[in-house]
Specification:
Helix 2 crosses helix 3 and helix 5 crosses helix 6. The chain has a seven-stranded antiparallel sheet with strand order 1-7-6-5-4-3-2. Helices cover 37% and strands 28% of the residues. The radius of gyration is 25 Å and the shape is globular.
């Protein structure tokens, strides 16, 4: 009698788990993830949309990214890919529906091949019953010099909810490192730029704010021959 009851209970639990998995596999939900960065919203917006930066943060830990196209404007499209440690490629594409600089991005996202041709969600070997297209909403805001980013993925399978949360947390970590590295780099000024920024004459301030490439190296190390284009020194104002 005791064993019979145990079998019934275990069978009921197993059936319940199967039903939960099936439901999570077929049901769709919205996943919201947010992070506050110790950076201005303009800097975060730049890292979020710059193709070179996207290649450094797109994809969970252990994945590498490839950005073929990222036309950030209403009606523009993107074509990205992420590569797993096992070498498997995951391509995605979409169209930007709404773009408000430093405030909001709304885009679609679909699975696709390397040429950007969309693939029905039912034909992609990933967990869950994916729709052919989901909507991604990214909101940007700033308070006291810190930027907050909120990502909402609308329409993803319920079963991948925890994976999506983990994936975005890891991507946010990568973005934080990029912002930190950029901030550190901006603080490392060569002597010429440092001197110019501390002076009052307008021509020196003008010089400090320009992107002169190799010119500073030519000036503060005049005897080095490593300057790629010494002729550019003729562009100096003054």
């Amino acid at each position: 009698m005791g064993f019979s009851m145990i079998y019934k209970i275990s069978g009921s639990i197993t059936l319940l788990l199967v039903l939960l998995v099936l439901g999570a596999w077929n049901l769709h939900t919205t996943v919201c993830t947010e992070r506050t960065f110790n950076a201005s919203v303009a800097d975060v917006w730049r890292v979020w949309n710059d193709a070179d930066s996207i290649q450094k943060w797109w994809g969970p830990k252990g994945y590498t990214a490839l950005v073929v196209r990222n036309d950030v404007r209403e009606g523009g499209s993107y074509l990205w890919a992420m590569k797993s440690a096992q070498g498997r490629m995951f391509w995605s594409t979409g169209t930007y529906k709404e773009v408000v600089a430093n405030k909001k991005l709304v885009s679609t996202m679909s699975f696709c091949n390397e040429s950007g041709k969309t693939i029905p969600g039912s034909q992609v070997s990933v967990p869950g019953q994916w729709p052919n297209e989901i909507t991604v909403i990214v909101a940007f805001s700033e308070s006291e010099g810190k930027a907050r980013v909120t990502v909402a993925e609308v329409g993803i399978p319920l079963i991948v909810y925890p994976l999506s949360k983990i994936g975005w947390a890891q991507q946010f970590d990568k973005i934080q490192l990029l912002l930190r590295d950029a901030d550190s780099s901006s603080e490392r000024l060569n002597p010429v730029t440092w001197f110019a920024r501390r002076q009052s004459p307008p021509h020196l301030r003008f010089f400090a704010n320009q992107n002169w490439g190799c010119i500073p190296s030519c000036l503060w190390r005049p005897y080095r021959s490593s300057c790629r284009d010494p002729s550019r020194t003729r562009l100096l104002p003054g």
